[in-house]
Amino acid sequence: METKMNGIHAHGLVTLSNGNRNGSIHANEPLVRGLGDDPSPEELEQELPVVVDGQIPLGDLLSRVVQSIYAELIELSETLPNEKNSDAGRKRMIADWVVKTKKQVVKLYAVMRWSRDAGDVQKAMNITAFLLEQNRQFEEAINSITTTKENLAPSRARNHDLLTSLDVLTTGSYQRLPSQIKKFFISPANLTDNEVKKTLRDMEDQIRYRLRMNEIIPIEMSQYRIEDGRVHFTVTNLFETSVSLRGAQRDDGWFFVHVEFLHTVGGDLIDVQDFPRRPTDMLKHHITDEANGRLAYYVPLPTDPDVPPEFQPPPRPQLPPGAVDTPFVRLFNFLQMMSLSYQLEILFFQAQRLRSLGWKEFLTLEKSQDSKSFTASYWIRPVSNTPGRPVFNQRMRVPPLGGSLTISLVDTHSSNKAGGGPLRTPKDRILAKLQRDGKLGGSRPSDEVETFRIDVKWEPVNGALGANTSPDLGKFEVGEFVVNPQDLNFEAILQKVIMKHVYAILAVYQHSLENGPYRAMFSFPGEVLLVVEDGFAALRVHLCADVYITVSVDPRTGRITLRDTGGLSAAGRAPRYAMISERINENPLMVNDILVMARFNTIIDLAEQKAQYMGLQTFRTRNLPREELAKFGPDVRTFLFIRLASFRSHYLVLLVTELEFRFVLISVQVLAGNPTRNLFMEDIGWLDVQRIHGGDIVVTEQLGPESRKVPRTSGPLGGFGHYDIKLGTDRFNLENEVLRELYAYCCARVAYTKVELQLKIRSIPYTYMSPSSSDPPSDLAHLHSSLARSVPGLCVQSSDILAGVPAAEAAMPNIRVIPLNWWSNKKLQVVTCVKLKYVQQPVGKRAGTNTVIRPSKRIIYDAREAIVSFLSENVDTCVDEFLEEWAKVSKMVVIAREVAQMAKQKSWEDVRLLSFDLQTVEFAYAKDYTVSITCTDQLMLSNNSSYELSFSRIRKLGRLVGLLDPGNSLDEDDLFNPHEDAEPFLKHVLHHGPRLSSSLHQLVELLRDSLPLFCVVDVMRRNSESGRDNDAHAIGVDVFPKAAGWYRVLYGDSRHALDFRLMKGRRVAILDAGHFLAIRAPHERTKPTQNATKSKPVKQDEKTRLSSKGVIKDKNTPIEELGVLLPIPGFAELVKEAVHDALRGDKPTSLQEGMVQHPQHNPKTMHVVHLDTGLICDVDTVGLLAPHVHYRVSKRLASRSSTT
User: Fold this and answer.
1) Which pTM does this prediction carry?
2) Residue 102, SS3?
3) How far, in Å, CA of 905 to CA of 890, rounded?
4) Contact partners, residue 1092, CB within 8 Å, separation at least 6
5) What is the DSSP letter of 881?
């Protein structure tokens, strides 16, 4: 058979046959009207489902791309002119935009090409979806048939309906319908409104009759109303419920309708919805079942005749004989218990939530097994079970908790005197008795009324936070701590209990401070106050001045907290109070001791703050043993050490007792042989503050030429007079003026003591002079104070203090010693004033034009008064420094005097004094060559004085013109003094002679004799470095001094060298350094490691230096091969040739331009002595011989280097 889509046959007709002719359908009748013709393709396509998954309209895509390109083009046209880039940058931006846009257009074009086949793709997707849907329907049909087969397999056919079959066969139709069908399809008629109202009124009358005549209603439920066919009972603060009758018969029971619990959740209202007043869903279902069960507890169940006896439910209990059923009593007991349990659960939930909001570590909850009570313990403390803890601390340990709060559900009873039974008022007991007698007569009720309530019990732990509170603290008045059903708030109850506990603990602290061991400090009125504000209790303790400390207890943690409430500096003390609070919480038994410590620390803090404002250095403790601190007295509680800025071992100590300040000046020293470097008090001086501050002394701060007076404040505490207990802690209000005067007095006292001690050690007698005659010199007039006029000065004799010092006879008899700056914050100084009899007058540019000159920081000279002032920065060594400076000045005077006389005594006309200023002497020793001498003694009366020499040359007119005229080039070496390189050796010459004058003559003679030698060696060095000497420049030459009259010229790879050594009698030896020669130059000093045959091994840095100068050509030469000098090859012949060249008057061609002009000598008059290793010549002829020898040696070494 040919078929079409959708199962439609070719002819649109089908014949169904079941073996019966009557069941046939003729072929000329269509099975479905309208389907006789074949459907067109368009109709078939309409039946296909449309699938647009993952496709978008091409128009939307085209519109979006065009709009995006247009928007970018508009933005580019608006922002491009404002760009700070160059024109090339703008063009680059346009090109980038064009490239990006072109890519988008190309993509869009490709999409449009693909969209030509969109219709075919869409049709294929629709056909695919149609086939998938058809496949799903086939699978569902198969599954349904399979399920039906499995379900029908165990089913049984119903009994044959013979009566209906007979009716159909005889009459051809049904004669009757089953009654069940009528009930299902025919609904009964609805009651009218009047019928409903009448029914409810009848039920209300029946309820009213039953309540008034028969039913026992608990007095607690006596408030009720009847409406809407039921009765509503209201029990204040418990519940509101409604019940109704099951029927109008006398034995018909009651059934439960609804209940609403009459409570209100307080506190955080976020979780109120978790506790609805009207139960819903499952909770209401359970309550309804339980309430109905209690109401019908004694009502017998109806019997179903269709149920076999063995399947009947168990019968309900029977009433005892003589008992009357009281369902409302059972309902009241049940709903009362439900309401109170509900409230208890709410409180427990609030307690649990409170723990999750930060109370978890400090609040524990414990619920009873019957869920009728729970206990909340607050202020939980961590228990420390340290094994090595002392027994005393174990016995005095603070309890691990502050207290407990128990909320429980308890039953209440009247007293035996009142007749027992539930807890009721006398009026309610009488009403209950009348109702019972009236309704029951001589019978008894089946159930009795039970009354319950929520009880709150507080048990504070004695000794919590170290306070032994009263045993009656846990007892409170009736109604003080009750659970209010209209405001169920566990946190409020707990806070109320904790606040009462906090108040009791703080009251114990207050009593112990005012009446305990520290009553002398805290018994003044207003020192300790217990304040309560907005239910918050705190202890306000006065510490000092306007500083108060507040002691409070955190209600959540039970930790004691200290807060500062005085002044702007409270924030700075907050970290320290936090640390003190930690100590208190570790052991609350120490709260009084810590408060006393905080008081003393505050006093010391204020004093330290004032001292620091004045720029003083303070210390809380010093490394003093306990026995040393005991010298201050037994009643001293704390200390403040103020170090004197100018005296590191002296302290002004502020001693704090329980009632006042005390002041003492001490000096300390390190205890010898102590590994911990403990200190001991060397001297103790007690200060009378009233005598120091109460006099006419006024401290002034010196700020240059003008001084500013510090005003004195008058008051009862100005001088720290006799103790007055009425003043309280205000006695510790230390004034800045008092502290400033005490510090200045201590500095003055120590300064004069140290000066006197130095004079006593040297057995130098001294006397005191009036303050008016002890003024400092005019240059130090600004270092003056009006307070200094009240302190006498010191006077010593020059014959005593300058005994044995050079030029002691130049000083006048009286020498003044005056300490300065002890009254200010500047560094303390001591000035020693000496009036001179005679002295070499300062000359030169550094002498100045004023009458007062200051050649150094420590020396001031008044030429008009002839007074030299020696300023010392260290009081401990002021006498030593004075003698040292005096020794320097005296030595400079000797040198200046000898130089001034040297031209006449030695006939050295070119030796002349250039400058002298008490510290430095500068003179010319030959032509324009000068030297400057400065004494640098570090020890008093040192015979091995150290000097510093500075060599230079005088700028002549020709040199000045060269410097001023840039076109006239002048070599800087023309201003170089060659003696500068040998300065480390020359400065020791001043120590050779027994006297300074003879040593000075030796130095000048050595400088004059060695000048020609040093000049010619310096010329060799310059010519080698500049390249004028080709051979020397090729092999490399290094020139350096070996001693005061000894120069060495090192060649090539540091294996060959020439020595130029000055000898006695103005002779010079030119030697091969590779040979040993037992000859010493005058004033020659060499180190032990240096000798004539070997030099020090060349280090890596020296090797690098020599290589950079060209001395070492091969950097890879091993260092160990560079430490030994080798003889110069053919040196004897080279010397002879050099001497012959000099006798002939020839000059080396490579040195023609570099040689300096020397005086002409007749070669026949030269005195030259030939040696195996060199020659000896006069100083005057070294300028002729040395260049020839150097030229021959460098040429020989250069030729050998080129051949190798």
Assistant:
1) 0.54
2) helix
3) 22
4) 1059, 1071, 1073, 1075, 1076, 1077
5) H
Q: What is the mean pLDDT of residues 564-588?
A: 76
pLDDT in tens, 1055-1088: 888 888 888 888 888 888 887 654 444 444 433 3
Look at residues 777, 926, 756, 949 and name the one whose alpha carbon lies nearest to residue 852.
777
Integer Cα distance of 292 and 258 in angstroms: 11
> Does position 1093 have pLDDT exceeding 60, yes or no?
no
If you write DSSP's letter for every residue of 365-425 in order, what string do you get? EEE-TTSSEEEEEES--PPP--TT--HHHHHTPPPS-SEEEEEEEEEEB--TTTTSSB---
Answer whether 346's CB lies under 8 Å from 483's CB: no
What is the DSSP track for 551-592? EEE-TTT--EEEEE-SSTTHHHHHHHHHHHHHHHHH-GGGHH
Q: How far separated are the first and last CA of the chain, in Å rounded? A: 122
Q: Find residue 123's DSSP bridge partners.
A: none
Triad 943, 949, 953: Cα angle to 5°? 155
The span from the CA of 1197 to the CA of 543, in Å, is 93
Q: What is the C-alpha separation between 504 and 463, in angstroms, rounded?
A: 11
Phi, psi of 465 (to 5 degrees): 55, 30
Stretch 21-41: mean pLDDT, rounded? 51
Tens of pLDDT, residue by residue over 841-859, are: 677 666 656 677 777 788 8
Alpha-carbon span 334 to 281, nearest angstrom: 19
Number of neighbours of residue 542 by Cβ within 10 angstroms: 21
Please choose, from the candidates 882, 857, 868, 724, the residue with its C-alpha nearest in 3D space to the C-alpha of residue 805. Answer: 882
CA angle 762, 767, 771 (to 5 degrees): 130
3-state secondary structure of 48: coil
Spatial neighbors of 1077 by CB under 8 A, at least 6 apart, are 1069, 1071, 1092, 1171, 1173, 1174
Environment class of 43 (CB within 10 Å of its CB; exposed 0-12, middle 13-18, buried 19+): exposed
Check residue 1093 and report its DSSP letter: S
Indicate the DSSP class of residue 1097: P
Going by C-alpha positions, the residue among 818, 810, 838, 704 that lies closest to residue 755 is: 818
Q: Please tell me the predicted confidence (pLDDT) of residue 538.
A: 92
- CB atoms near residue 333 (< 10 Å): 19
626 neighbors 660 (Cβ within 8 angstroms): no
What are the structure tokens assigned to 865, written together? 């008064």
**Number of neighbours of residue 98 by Cβ within 10 angstroms:** 10
Candidates 437, 438, 435, 414; CA nearest to 426 is 414
CA 86 – CA 1194 distance, rounded (Å): 66
Q: Is 244:230 a contact under the CB 8 Å cutoff?
A: yes
Contact yes or no for 463/399 (Cβ under 8 A): yes
CA 756 to chain centre: 50
Does an H or E element contain 254, and which? strand 254-261
AA identity, residue 1016: V
Q: For the stretch 1102-1131, what's the b/e string if a residue is b when 16 or more beta carbons lie within 10 angstroms of its beta carbon? A: bbeebbeebbbeeeebeeeebeebeebeeb
* Rounded-to-integer distance, Cα 756 and Cα 817, Å: 10
Report angle CA 1110, 1111, 1112 to the nearest 5 degrees: 90
Closest of 850, 879, 847, 882 to residue 868, by C-alpha: 882
Spatial separation of the C-alpha atoms in residues 685 and 587, rounded to whole Å: 40
Q: Per the structure block, which two tokens stand in for 854?
A: 């200051």
Record the tokens describing residue 582, joined without a space: 């930690």
Helix spans in 115-214 (H) = 118-152, 162-171, 179-185, 193-213
The gap from C-alpha 305 to its chain's centroid, in whole angstroms, comes to: 90
